[in-house]
Amino acid sequence: MSQIETTSVESGDLTLNERFRIFGILGLILASFVFFALWPPRWLQSIEMWVNTRAVWSNLPIWYYILITLVDVHITTACVSLFLHRCQTHGSITFNRFVGYAMEFWLWIFTAMATIRWVAVHRKHHAKVETDEDPHSPVMYGVWRVFFYGTKLYHHAAYDEFVLRKYGKGIARRWFYLKFSLLGPVIAFVLNLWLFGIVGFPMWLVEMVWIPGFAAGVINGLGHWWGYRNFDTPDNSRNLPSKILAILTCGESSHNNHHYNQNSPKFSVKKGEIDLGWYYSRALEFVGLAHNRNT
């Protein structure tokens, strides 16, 4: 395994205003949770009681809710890695069309993302990597700006019609997902409250921030700044040296491997590297629901 290192480019300091926004938002969220947890107002207690009495499973042990949330976000991560990334962007996997529809619908519910937007941004990233046209390069923007503001950078490119036309070729423009993108998370919010009661709200928050945190922050940010390199690619891509991150991201943390061979459905190349996405795709291929290119 290559030596773990940090890229030599500057990490890019956040402006004072950007730091103020980050700490202000995080502080407000933390203060709100502490306040409402310790001193819940009467109106909030009434809402909680009303929601819980109508929920399907409002009295489960807390670890049930934690496990369900982890399963939800892992399925979302797998759909991003398998459907958006390996299938739609690079064509290294093809799925049975109903499996594809199910993944796309799941992603709409839990991320509000339309397929063509994600694909176009990622294709532009590969085409213009580490240049001033790269949508989210830590080399150009600074690693902490990409880590904390990666979602903003993504949206800036994803809603550029020129980017969609140039880099979204061959991807269906599903007008419903494009026009009603935010309806998906609203449906997820209502379902969470109906199924789990008021605890469904923090579950929903975790589900909503998971992909922006890991995709926009960890992979796009740290994945081009810190880690080891198996291949001398013409960019600053890195493999993140954490098996936990590899599991949580379904293998996406092997970022340098992917940049070296973008069209391979398998991201792990050396002993010790974990790519759950590859195992999932092989399982789907075994039952006739997917087809992988040769690695």
Q: Quick recap of the structure?
A:
It comes from Candidatus Yanofskybacteria bacterium RIFCSPHIGHO2_01_FULL_41_21. The protein is mainly alpha-helical and 295 residues long.
Question: Order of strands side by side in the largest beta sheet?
Answer: 1-3
Tally of structural domains: 2
- How much strand? under 5%
Secondary-structure element order, as H and E? EHHHEHHHHHHHHEHHHE
End-to-end Cα distance, whole Å, is 20 Å
Membrane topology: Multi-pass membrane protein
Family: Belongs to the fatty acid desaturase type 2 family.
Protein name: Fatty acid desaturase domain-containing protein
GO cellular component, one term: membrane
Key features of this structure:
61% helix; mainly alpha; two-stranded antiparallel ribbon; membrane; single chain; lipid metabolism; oxidoreductase; 295 residues
Describe the structure.
The protein is mainly alpha-helical. The chain folds into 2 domains: 15-54; 60-292, no CATH class. Helices cover 61% and strands 3% of the residues. It has 14 helices and 4 strands. The protein has helices spanning 16-38, 42-54, 62-89, 97-111, 115-127, 138-141, 143-158, 161-167, 175-179, 183-196, 200-219, 243-248, 255-260, 276-286, and strands at 5-6, 93-95, 226-227, 290-292. The strands form 2 sheets. A two-stranded antiparallel ribbon has the order 1-3. Strands 2-4 form a two-stranded antiparallel sheet. The chain starts with a strand and ends with a strand. The chain crosses the membrane at residues 20-41, 62-85, 105-121, 175-196, 208-228.
